[in-house]
C-alpha cells in the first residue's frame, strides 16, 4: 500500500510503452533470476495513517518520559526547555526537506544558517573556526583523534577519566581502526589527576583529551592541565557542555586547540539519545584539517553577498581516500535548532541561564548532601551536574524514587566501578526548587529504607526484569 | 539578452545575518526565577575558571527572530517545493505523519539513560525496526547505532578488522570500484586500510578480470570489497554471485553500501546476493527528511559470522518467564564487540520515523515503492533519450536502469559549449533541483538522475521538457545557460574565493 506514489494504471501503461517494455518485471530482469525474491517480504501489510498513529502512540505510552517523571538524569543529554519557535522553524519544509546545499544559489537559507551557527559556536568556545556540525558528541571526539594524527607521526592519546565514558569508548573504537594507543589518566577528588596527566604526556602524544565540566560534573582547570600538552607539542582537545559556556571561561582562552561536544542541550530534544549534533571548533591552524561541512561567505557574479560550502577539498566527495574525514552528514537541522535557541536566549539570556544553573545546582547539591546517608562524591566546583555517594544500593534507591515519579539521576557504577555507590544528578532550568526539595525527600526515604551500614557492601541484583511504567 | 532587465525582489534584498540585526538591550527569552539564594558566582566557582564577557550572541526580540528565519527559509529550494532528482540521494516524499509520531512526548522527551524497564516502548520499537531491516536486507542481525551511511561504512570496516583479528589475521586492502561513493574510500582510510580501485566493465559493472587480478595479487591481504548494487550508475551488477564467491574464497568480507537500496526493496536482498554487512540510509529509502544535510541514520545488517563483533549496546528481546511477557533490554555484555561508535543508542527519532514509514507501506507497499522508483527512472531515461537530449546527453550505459541513471554531457559540451554545470544552473531557473553532477567520476560531464517513486509522470515530463528547452535555447544562444541562473536569490557564486580566502564566521566587535 504505497500511498505516496501517484502512477495510475494509465500512467503505467504509457510509461511502459515509452520505455518499450510490457511490464516492470522486465526492468527487474537485470537481477539474476536466482537473486530475485520470489516471495513477499515477511512484514505486515501496510496500515492506514490513523492505525500507524495509534500503534506508535501505544509504544510511546510505555515509556516514562520527562513529562511523566521529573527528570534529574543528565550524563550528556539534558531535559532543557526548548522554546516554541525552535519547533516552528525547524518544522518548515524549506529547512526540513532539502538535501545538503550542493547548489548554493537555491540553498542560501540553509547556508546562511550554517554561517550564523558557526559564528555562535566560535563565540561560545572562544575559537575562531567552527564547522557546521557533526553527528553527535562522542563521535566528534573520536574525529578529533583522527585530525590529531593527521599532521604527525605520533600515535598516542592521553585521555582523562573525566571524559564522558561514551566518548572514551568511541575514541577507543575508532583508534583500533586508524591505529593509535589510548592511555587513560585517573581522577583525584573528582578532578583529573594533574601529576599523572603530566607524567603520561610525552613526545609521542598526539593529543590530550579533557572534558570540563567533566563527567562527574566538576569544572576542570583546563589551562593548568593543558600545560603538559603544550610542553610536548600535543593537541589539546577539550570536550564541553555548551550550556555552561555562558559562565565558564571558554576553552579557546584556556589553550584548547579543539573544543567540541554534544550539542543536544542547545535546542534539541532528548529523543532517547538522538538525533542531535556535535559541534567542533578549532584554532585557525586546524582549518584545513577540519572534519565536516563548513559554510563560507562569498559573492555572486553581480557582487551580491552569498554563502557556499567552503573548503570542500577537505571532504570525501572531492578528496575520496585523502579526505580529512569520511563524514557526509552535518546534522544541519539540529544545528539550526541550536542557532534559533541561542538567538532566543541572546547574549544576556545565555549568561543568565548559566548563572541560574550554577545557583540551583549549588542549592541542590547542598540540599541533597544534607540527607542522611548521602554525601558529595567530590567537592570540586560544579555548574549543572554533581555526583553523590549513597550509603545504599544505587539501583534500589533509584527504583524507590521512580515509584514516586522522580528519575533521580544516573548511576555511575557501570562505567565507574570505583564509584559503585555513585549517583550523578543533573539540573536544568526546568527543575524547580520544589522539585529539588521533593528529590531530597524521596532520597531520604529511599536511602533510609535501603541503607547498608556495613562498609564495602555490594549492591543487590536488579529486580526481575519487567515493565513497570 | 543574458539576464532579465531587473533584479528580482529577493535579489534586491541583500543577505543580512542575525548578528547584523542585533541591538544591545533587545531580548527574547524570559527565564524562570532562580528561587534559590542569589549567591555571587565567584563564591561557587573560582574566579579564574569564570568567563569575563558573555559570548556575543545576537540581541533580538522573538518577532524578529521568527521573521529572520522565515526569510532565510524562502531562500531555500526544498523537496516540498518541487522535483529534486538528485542522484544517489533518494529525495522521496517525507510523510508528515512521521514527524507527528516522532514528536510524541513518550519519544521526544524520553531520556536515553532511562532504565530499560521504563523504556519498553522505545526498545520494542528499536527491536521491531531491527527485525524489519533484517528481513528487507536478508541478513539476520542488525545494529541501529551508526549515525549515517558513512558511519555505517566505518562500522563495517571495523567489524571486518575485528572479524579477521579474531581469526588471527591482519589484512590491509579494501577493494572498491572506481564508481563508488566518496565516503567509501574515505571510510577505508579512516579505518586504517588501503584502498584498491577496481575498474568498471563495458556494461557498467565490476570488471571481473581486474577484480581477479587485484585479488590474486595478494589474496591474503584482501580484507573487504565495498560495493553498491545497483551501483552509482543505477545498474545492477549481474555478476554479483561470482564477485561474492571470489571475495569469500580469498577470505574477505563483502560490504553493501545501501545508498541505493530504494531500487530493490522487496525485489532482491543484499544478504541473498552474498553480502556480509549492509548499511541502510534511513534518510534515503525510509523517508527520514534530509534536513538540509542531516540528521540521518545508518543502521547495519550483518551475517552470523559478523554478529559477535557488533557495536554495543545491542537491543535484545529476552523471553519472559513466571507469567511475564517478553522484556526488551540493552545488552552491554558483548565481549568481542568493536565497542561504541557514538553516545547512547543511536538516532532514535529517526528510527521512529522510519518504523512509521515501514508500518505505513507494509511488505507490498515497500515492493511497490521500489517498483515505481524503477519505472519512473526508466521512463525519464526514455524521455531524455528523445529529441535533443538524446543527442547531446546520451546515457552512459545503454541498458535498462534501476532507480537512477547517468547521462554524459560530453557531446553537449563539445557541440554547444555547454558544461554540465551550465545545464544544472539553468535548470534552477525552470524551478527544478538539478541532478547530481560530475559523479560518478568515470563518466565525463556526468549527470546522475534519481526521480524516486513519489514523483508524478507530469513532473517527469516537465523536467524532460525543460531539458529539451534549455538545449534548444543553447543552439542559438548558449550564453544564456552559461550565465545562469537569473531568478534565484543570488546568482552564480564564487566558490573559489570562499576556499582561497575563507570567511567562515561573522566578524563581531
How would you explain this protein's 3D organization?
The complex is a heterodimer of chains A (469) and B (509). Chain A is α/β, with parallel strands linked by helices and 469 residues long. Chain A folds into two domains: 70-80 and 348-450, Aspartate Aminotransferase, domain 1 (Alpha-Beta Complex); 84-340, Type I PLP-dependent aspartate aminotransferase-like (Major domain) (Aspartate Aminotransferase, domain 2, 3-Layer(aba) Sandwich), CATH 3.40.640.10. Chain A has 14 helices and 17 strands. In chain A, strands 2-10-9-8-7-3-4 form a seven-stranded mixed β-sheet, sandwiched between helices. Chain A has a four-stranded antiparallel β-sheet with strand order 13-14-17-16. In chain A, α6 (108-125) packs parallel to α12 (332-369), α7 runs parallel beside α8 and α9 packs parallel to α10. The longest helix of chain A is centred in the last third of the chain and has 38 residues, at 332-369. Chain A is globular and about 80 Å long. Chain B folds into three domains: 9-73, no CATH class; 97-108 and 115-357, Aspartate Aminotransferase, domain 2 (3-Layer(aba) Sandwich), CATH 3.40.640; 369-496, Alpha-Beta Complex (Aspartate Aminotransferase, domain 1). Helix content of chain B is 37%, strand content 10%. Chain B has 18 helices and twelve strands. In chain B, the strands form three sheets. In chain B, strands 1-7-6-5-4-2-3 form a seven-stranded mixed β-sheet, sandwiched between helices. A three-stranded antiparallel β-sheet of chain B has the order 10-12-11. In chain B, α9 (208-217) packs parallel to α10 (240-250) and α12 crosses α16 (457-476). Chain B starts with 8 loop residues before the first helix and ends in a 9-residue tail after the last helix. The model of chain B has no long low-confidence stretch (mean pLDDT 96). At the A-B interface, α1, α2, α3, α4 and α5 of A face α3, α4, α5, α6 and α7 of B.
Amino acid at each position: 500500500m504505497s500511498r505516496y506514489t501517484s502512477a495510475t494504471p494509465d500512467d503505467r501503461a504509457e510509461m511502459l510503452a515509452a520505455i518499450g517494455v510490457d511490464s516492470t518485471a522486465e526492468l527487474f530482469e537485470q537481477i539474476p533470476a536466482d537473486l530475485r525474491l520470489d516471495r513477499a517480504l515477511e512484514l505486515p501489510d501496510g496500515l492506514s495513517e490513523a492505525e500507524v498513529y495509534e500503534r506508535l502512540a501505544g509504544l510511546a505510552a510505555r515509556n516514562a518520559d520527562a513529562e511523566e517523571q521529573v527528570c534529574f538524569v543528565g550524563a550528556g543529554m539534558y531535559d532543557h526547555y526548548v522554546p516554541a519557535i525552535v519547533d516552528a522553524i525547524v518544522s518548515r519544509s524549506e529547512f526540513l526537506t532539502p538535501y545538503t546545499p550542493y547548489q548554493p544559489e537555491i540553498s542560501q537559507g540553509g547556508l546562511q544558517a550554517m554561517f550564523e551557527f558557526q559564528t555562535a559556536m566560535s563565540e561560545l568556545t572562544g575559537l575562531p573556526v567552527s564547522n557546521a556540525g557533526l553527528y553527535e558528541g562522542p563521535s566528534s571526539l573520536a574525529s578529533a583523534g583522527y585530525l590529531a594524527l593527521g599532521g604527525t607521526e605520533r600515535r598516542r592519546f592521553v585521555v582523562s577519566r573525566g571524559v564522558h565514558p561514551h566518548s572514551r569508548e568511541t575514541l577507543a573504537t575508532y583508534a583500533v581502526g586508524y591505529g593509535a594507543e589510548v592511555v587513560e589518566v585517573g581522577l583525584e577528588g573528582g578532578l583529573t589527576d594533574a601529576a599523572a596527566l603530566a607524567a603520561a604526556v610525552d613526545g609521542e602524544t598526539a593529543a590530550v583529551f579533557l572534558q570540563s565540566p567533566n563527567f562527574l560534573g566538576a569544572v576542570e582547570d583546563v589551562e593548568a592541565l593543558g600545560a603538559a600538552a603544550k610542553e610536548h607539542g600535543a593537541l589539546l582537545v577539550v570536550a564541553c557542555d555548551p550550556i555552561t559556556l555562558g559562565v565558564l571561561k571558554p576553552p579557546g582562552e584556556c589553550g584548547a586547540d579543539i573544543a567540541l561536544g554534544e550539542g543536544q542541550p542547545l535546542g534539541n530534544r532528548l529523543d532517547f539519545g538522538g538525533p542531535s549534533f556535535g559541534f567542533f571548533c578549532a584554532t585557525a591552524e586546524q582549518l584545513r584539517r577540519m572534519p565536516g561541512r563548513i559554510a563560507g561567505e562569498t559573492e555572486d557574479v553581480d557582487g551580491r553577498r552569498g554563502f557556499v560550502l567552503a573548503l570542500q577539498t577537505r571532504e570525501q566527495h572531492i578528496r575520496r581516500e585523502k579526505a580529512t574525514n569520511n563524514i557526509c552528514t552535518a546534522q544541519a537541522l539540529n544545528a539550526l535548532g541550536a542557532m534559533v535557541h541561542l538567538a532566543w536566549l541572546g547574549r544576556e539570556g545565555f549568561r543568565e541561564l548559566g548563572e541560574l544553573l550554577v545557583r540551583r545546582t549549588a542549592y541542590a547539591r547542598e540540599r541533597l548532601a544534607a540527607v542522611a546517608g548521602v554525601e558529595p562524591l567530590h567537592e570540586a566546583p560544579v555548574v549543572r551536574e554533581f555526583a553523590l555517594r549513597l550509603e545504599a544500593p544505587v539501583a534500589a534507591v533509584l527504583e524507590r524514587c521512580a515509584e514516586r515519579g522522580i528519575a533521580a539521576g544516573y548511576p555511575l557504577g557501570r562505567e565507574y566501578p570505583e564509584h559503585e555507590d555513585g549517583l550523578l544528578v543533573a539540573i536544568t532550568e526546568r527543575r524547580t526548587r520544589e522539585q529539588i526539595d521533593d528529590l531530597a525527600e524521596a532520597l531520604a526515604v529511599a536511602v533510609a529504607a535501603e541503607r547498608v551500614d556495613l562498609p564495602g557492601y555490594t549492591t543487590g541484583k536488579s529486580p526481575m526484569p519487567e515493565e513497570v511504567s | 539578452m543574458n539576464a532579465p532587465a531587473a533584479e528580482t525582489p529577493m535579489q534586491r534584498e541583500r543577505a543580512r545575518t542575525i548578528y547584523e540585526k542585533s541591538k544591545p538591550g533587545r531580548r527574547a527569552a524570559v527565564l524562570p526565577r532562580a528561587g534559590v539564594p542569589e549567591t555571587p558566582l565567584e563564591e561557587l566557582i573560582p574566579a579564574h575558571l569564570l568567563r569575563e564577557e558573555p559570548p556575543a550572541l545576537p540581541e533580538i526580540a522573538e518577532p524578529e527572530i521568527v521573521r529572520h528565519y522565515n526569510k532565510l527559509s524562502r531562500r531555500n529550494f526544498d523537496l516540498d517545493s518541487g522535483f529534486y532528482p538528485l542522484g544517489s540521494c533518494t529525495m522521496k516524499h517525507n510523510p508528515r505523519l512521521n514527524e507527528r509520531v516522532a514528536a510524541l512526548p513518550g519519544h521526544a522527551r524520553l531520556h536515553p539513560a532511562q532504565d530499560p524497564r521504563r523504556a519498553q516502548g522505545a526498545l520494542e520499537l528499536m527491536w521491531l525496526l531491527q527485525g524489519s531491516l533484517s528481513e528487507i536486507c536478508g541478513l539476520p542481525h542488525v545494529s541501529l547505532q551508526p549515525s549515517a551511511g558513512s558511519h555505517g561504512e566505518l562500522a563495517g570496516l571495523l567489524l571486518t578488522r575485528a572479524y579477521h583479528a579474531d581469526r588471527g589475521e591482519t589484512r590491509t586492502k579494501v577493494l572498491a570500484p572506481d564508481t563508488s561513493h566518496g565516503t567509501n574510500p574515505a571510510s577505508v582510510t579512516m579505518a586504517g586500510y588501503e584502498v584498491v580501485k577496481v575498474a568498471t566493465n563495458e556494461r557498467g559493472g565490476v570488471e571481473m578480470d581486474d577484480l581477479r587480478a587485484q585479488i590474486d595479487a595478494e589474496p591474503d591481504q584482501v580484507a573487504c570489497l565495498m560495493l553498491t548494487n545497483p551501483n552509482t550508475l543505477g545498474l545492477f551488477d549481474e555478476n554479483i554471485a561470482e564477485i561474492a564467491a571470489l571475495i569469500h574464497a580469498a577470505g574477505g568480507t563483502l560490504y553493501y553500501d545501501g545508498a541505493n537500496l530504494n531500487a530493490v526493496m522487496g525485489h532482491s536482498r543484499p544478504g541473498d546476493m552474498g553480502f556480509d554487512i549492509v548499511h541502510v540510509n534511513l534518510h534515503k529509502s525510509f523517508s527520514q527528511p534530509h534536513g538540509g544535510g542531516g540528521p540521518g541514520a545508518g543502521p547495519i545488517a550483518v551475517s552470523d559470522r559478523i554478529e559477535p563483533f557488533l557495536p554495543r549496546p545491542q537491543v535484545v528481546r529476552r523471553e519472559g518467564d513466571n507469567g511475564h511477557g517478553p522484556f526488551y533490554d540493552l545488552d552491554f555484555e558483548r565481549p568481542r564487540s568493536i565497542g561504541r561508535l557514538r553516545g547512547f543508542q543511536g538516532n532514535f527519532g529517526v528510527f521512529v520515523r522510519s518504523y512509521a514509514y515501514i508500518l505505513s507501506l507494509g511488505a507490498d507497499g515497500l515492493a511497490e515503492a521500489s517498483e515505481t522508483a524503477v519505472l519512473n527512472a526508466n521512463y525519464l531515461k526514455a524521455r531524455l533519450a528523445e529529441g535533443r537530449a538524446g543527442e547531446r546527453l546520451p546515457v552512459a550505459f545503454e541498458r535498462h536502469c534501476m532507480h537512477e541513471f547517468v547521462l554524459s554531457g560530453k557531446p553537449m559540451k563539445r557541440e554547444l559549449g555547454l558544461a554540465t554545470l551550465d545545464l544544472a544552473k539553468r535548470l534552477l531557473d525552470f524551478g527544478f533541483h538539478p541532478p547530481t553532477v560530475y559523479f560518478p567520476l568515470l563518466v565525463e560531464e556526468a549527470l546522475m538522475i534519481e526521480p524516486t517513486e513519489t514523483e508524478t509522470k507530469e513532473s517527469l515530463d516537465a523536467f524532460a521538457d525543460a531539458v529539451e528547452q534549455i538545449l534548444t535555447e543553447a543552439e542559438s544562444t548558449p550564453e544564456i545557460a552559461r550565465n545562469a541562473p537569473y531568478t534565484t536569490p543570488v546568482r552564480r557564486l564564487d566558490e573559489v574565493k570562499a576556499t582561497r580566502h575563507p570567511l567562515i564566521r561573522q566578524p563581531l566587535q
